[in-house]
Amino acid sequence: MPSTMVVFHRTPREALTATRMTVEDKDDYLVLSVTPKWIIQTFGSRKEALHPGLQDLLHYKTSDSSALAKVRSLSLAEKEIAAALITPPVVSAARSYWYLAKVLEILTHHLFPPINLASSEPFCSKIKRIDRERSDACIAWLKERLDEPLNLNDLARHIGCAPHYLSRQFKKSTGLTLKQQHRALRIDHAATLLSEGDYNVTEAAMEVGYNSLSHFSKAFMEEKGCLPSDFLND
Prior knowledge:
The chain is mainly alpha-helical. 52% of the residues lie in helices and 2% in strands.
């Protein structure tokens, strides 16, 4: 499933397996593989704080199950790390050092038990926080695609939930539909471009995905209460 992760251990009795993905499968898969010896060398001084199932493996205890954790959704922080690993933002000469730092960062999320928020965060507050994080992630995704039509299915895949649920949750959290939020972000950005003086009305409209000046002017009037030309610097 998109935007999910699992931690597992391959026992000596288990053979390596391979899976051929279908042509339609366009997801990115990130696999981090480390040995017990490397874990002990790297986290040895904090070994007793590691995931209980991992501690059993490091103490040579066997288990019928190779899974150390259930499949779960990636957090926003983990999504950002995974995306960065796929497209590292550093020059090639620095990548070995950068990769090591990122691998250590992501393993600290997975090799240690998660922070238990239940005792410090009420259930209702937790749900509101999760909804707010999803809404923030939606807005960030939309801001990166102002010149593109809103694609609810692609957005839902990125966030990791069903399209109809995402639409309902976003409206409940923000008071706006995703379509309304997308338009507001487009017009806000266009207004900024116009007020800075580097774009004329036609250029600003094209920059935020409007091919029709009449549609752009109508949307601008509904959002700002004035025409786009009123934002031009004289």
